[in-house]
Amino acid sequence: MTTVLLVDDHALMRAGFRTILEASDDFVVVGEAATGAEAVAAASALSPDVICMDVQMPDMDGLEATRRITADPAIHAAVLIVTTFDRDDYLFQALAAGASGFLLKNAGPEELAAAVRIVASGDALLAPEVTRRVIERFAPEPASGAALLPIPTPTDAGREPTPEFTEREAEVLRLLAQAMSNAEIAAHLFIGEATVKTHVSNVLQKLGARDRVAAVVWAHRAGLA
């Protein structure tokens, strides 16, 4: 069972999400919160697997709540941002804050349930169109030298220093850059999903990257995708 915390300042929206998720046998909604501050407290108290997080809320917005939740080593929840606003600044700030996914509220019930399953499994919800927007934003080196995501610094030649990947790790990284999930990579390479997770973990560690998004951007910068 996947335990879920619903965070939204509209009770009707929370009720709708609860109805959608609890219609499936693999979800249990363990709590609700109406503000970012309540979300942080509930995440600590309830230890959910996934938090469906709104952005615009009173007291503390969902982006700040996400930052606090992902920074707390005692909280292991994956955060799925669910918002009305298809805004690049929300998308990029959410990813930088440590969110595992970004979904719009006009998504269908099946898409919400699928998104929760994806982030609960340890994958990132990185649809191809979102990948393109992330690459366009982060792949060019910022003039200020600052970046919202922890991407390794390019060499003087303008390319990323390449860690010593195994052949299989390099294959997995290329498929990550194509926005494939762990399950899709496993099917493509004819290996188990647990093995894929191990390779992804090794890739992130060698890159010094916090998450899959950073790895995807690295791969595009390095010309591996």
* Main beta sheet strand tally, sense and closure: 5 strands, parallel
Look up the CATH topology of the largest domain.
Answer: Rossmann fold
- Helices and strands, in order, run as EHEHEHEHEHHHHHH
Overall, the morphology is globular
Question: Number of folding domains?
Answer: 2
At the first level of CATH, what is the class of the largest domain? Alpha Beta
List the uncertain runs: 140-160
Give the proportion of residues in helices: 40-55%
Cα-based radius of gyration, to the nearest Å: 18 Å
Strand proportion, as a percent range, falls in 5-15%
Tally of alpha and pi helices:
10
The overall average pLDDT, rounded, is 83
Distance N to C terminus: 35 Å
* Oligomer class: single chain
CATH homologous superfamily annotation of the largest domain: Response regulator
Side-by-side strand order of the widest sheet: 2-1-3-4-5
Could you give a quick summary of the protein structure above?
With 225 residues, the chain is an alpha/beta fold. The protein folds into two domains: 2-125, Response regulator (Rossmann fold); 145-221, Winged helix-like DNA-binding domain superfamily/Winged helix DNA-binding domain (Arc Repressor Mutant, subunit A), CATH 1.10.10.
Describe the structure.
By secondary structure, this protein is α/β, with parallel strands linked by helices. It has 2 domains: 2-125, Rossmann fold (3-Layer(aba) Sandwich); 145-221, Arc Repressor Mutant, subunit A (Orthogonal Bundle), CATH 1.10.10. The chain has 10 helices and 5 strands; from the N terminus they run βαβαβαβαβαααααα. The protein has helices at 11-22, 36-46, 62-71, 88-97, 109-120, 128-138, 167-176, 182-189, 193-207, 212-221; strands spanning 2-7, 27-33, 50-53, 78-83, 101-104. A 5-stranded parallel β-sheet has the order 2-1-3-4-5, with helices on both faces. Helix 2 (36-46) runs parallel beside helix 3 and helix 7 (167-176) packs across helix 9 (193-207). The chain is globular.
